[in-house]
Amino acid sequence: MYAQLKKKMMGNGVSLVAVDGSIGVGKTSLARLLAQHLGARLVEENVEDNPFIERFYEDMGAYSLQAQLFFLMNRYKQQLSLSQKELFSELTVIDYIFARDKIFAHVNLTDDELGLYSRIASELETKLIRPDIVIYLQASSDVLFERIQRRGNAMERMISKSYLETLNEAFNHFFFNYTETPLLIVNTDRMDFVNDERHFHDLVQRVSEPVEGTELYVPSWETQ
Question: pTM here?
């Protein structure tokens, strides 16, 4: 079943799928499921490799620029390794888009720091391959905060609810103005891709169909 959907996606010109969303929304979980069921290569960012991230959560003002630039260069090196040749022959799922970094930068950096960051990021971005489709997972701030508390990551537990709300607003603003690639917006407040196979399968069915511009995912059972 999923092999046919994979073939259909690649027949529609989709070889690089990116999943993104705010902290706690479940982007990595969905990316892993997509890769597993579709037999795709999985590319994940590794937040814990950042030596500044724990200090950032303890003192955001002092360590924002260091943490941001480390993320920027790591994500650049990782995405630069995605060769065009491989993407023509193999489906790849990545659990972030490069521009994700900009969202955090606008929230975390001062104006002077943002000016420096933006000059570097703009130069790097021109050298990278764009996804064929982006799946933006959206959720309310209350749901995100609850999920973060439930999954028990020690560093994430230091995130305040007010910071999470600001970050979530920034993600929504960015993606509601996003036009670079086809975009499928998925509200996850009442979705559970990990524990409810119907939810996951229905989304994969939709992703296997062409997405033009920006579209809002509507579960099939809500249209019947």
Answer: 0.93
In the residue annotation, 189 being an active-site residue is answered as no
Assign domain 2-222 to its CATH architecture.
3-Layer(aba) Sandwich (3.40)
Delimit the domains of the chain by residue range.
2-222
Instruction: DSSP for 34-91, please give it.
Output: HHHHHT-EEE---GGG-TTHHHHHH-HHHHHHHHHHHHHHHHHHHHHT--HHHHHHS-
Residues 6+ apart with CB under 8 A from 54: 155
Residues 73, 78, 83, 86, Cα dihedral to 10°: -170
pLDDT at 150: 87
Please give the DSSP secondary-structure letter assigned to residue 23: T
Average pLDDT score over residue span 164-180:
96
Phi first, then psi, for residue 215 (nearest 5°) are -130, 150
User: Which of 20, 59, 95, 111 is flagged as catalytic?
Assistant: 95
